[in-house]
Design goal:
Blueprint (H helix, E strand, L loop, with lengths): L1 E5 L11 H13 L3 E5 L12 E4 L2 E4 L1 H12 L9 H27 L2 H6 L13 H18 L7 H19 L12 H14 L6 H7 L2 H14 L10
Helix pairs in contact: 1-2, 1-7, 3-5, 3-6, 3-7, 6-8, 7-9
Length: about 240
């Protein structure tokens, strides 16, 4: 049995982390039975979530989890895509994970109101007297990581415009199709859905969410994917 280690439901989402969401949706697309447990990054082989335990094999990072599962079970999440579509799917995934994720994460962590009602609660399990210092340290580490990848070296307006450009690109690729490359979801749809849901959740207010709500096809796509993969999770699409 596969055990998926994640953060669990939070922030109006069935799973707090878009990377864990990606892996969970891909497990469902592959039709593989699994159970899910709350995990700790320090218990992961790479110090991050998600990771899986697959009959004793511990695999971390959503990309390498996918590779492991496809190889072990002889399945291909991109079956039906031609060579060009596979290349485009990889480019979209890198755009979302290596660029857009930091921009959307910045909206969650570095807008004070969002941090206070969201990630600040990650330390709630610590003794009350230690929480303020732990929150400061956590926020400092996240702020430095976003500076290291270059995102917070820009102005707030520039950051939003960079994120909006990725949203526009994704909207153009999706067009009026049910999924990014046709009628059925491919591996990259798990990534796109996870990132979009994280931006569109009404729990967090941000200028990037406002821009995302302006793309009707992305809003509808996110709602379709939510119904398909998390039918019991309440989700109200922006009007």
């Amino acid at each position: 049995m596969i055990t998926l280690h994640g953060f669990g439901p939070m922030f109006g989402l069935p799973e707090a982390s878009p990377y864990v969401t990606k892996t969970e949706v891909q497990l469902k697309l592959l039709g593989l039975p699994y159970r899910k447990e709350r995990g700790r990054p320090d218990a992961s082989p790479k110090g991050q979530l998600p990771y899986i335990d697959d009959d004793g094999a511990r695999i971390a990072d959503s990309h390498f989890i996918r590779e492991h599962l496809e190889r072990k079970h002889g399945k291909d999440l991109d079956a039906g895509l031609d060579a060009r579509q596979r290349a485009e799917a990889w480019a979209v995934e890198r755009m979302l994970e290596n660029h857009f994720a930091a921009i959307s994460g910045r909206m969650r962590w570095l807008i004070p109101e969002n941090f206070a009602k969201g990630p600040a609660h990650f330390v709630d399990g610590a003794p009350e007297e230690l929480r303020p210092k732990l929150r400061e340290e956590l926020l400092a580490r996240v702020r430095e990581s976003y500076r290291a990848v270059g995102v917070t070296r820009h102005s707030d307006e520039e950051i939003v415009e960079l994120g909006a450009r990725s949203l526009d690109a994704l909207s153009t690729i999706l067009g009026d199709k049910p999924c990014l490359f046709g009628e059925r979801p491919a591996g990259v749809d798990a990534t796109a859905f996870a990132m979009l849901a994280g931006v569109l959740t009404p729990f967090f207010d941000s200028p990037l969410r406002t821009r995302a709500e302006g793309s009707a096809n992305l809003v509808a796509y996110t709602a379709r994917m939510m119904r398909a993969f998390y039918p019991d999770h309440p989700w109200e699409a922006p009007r």
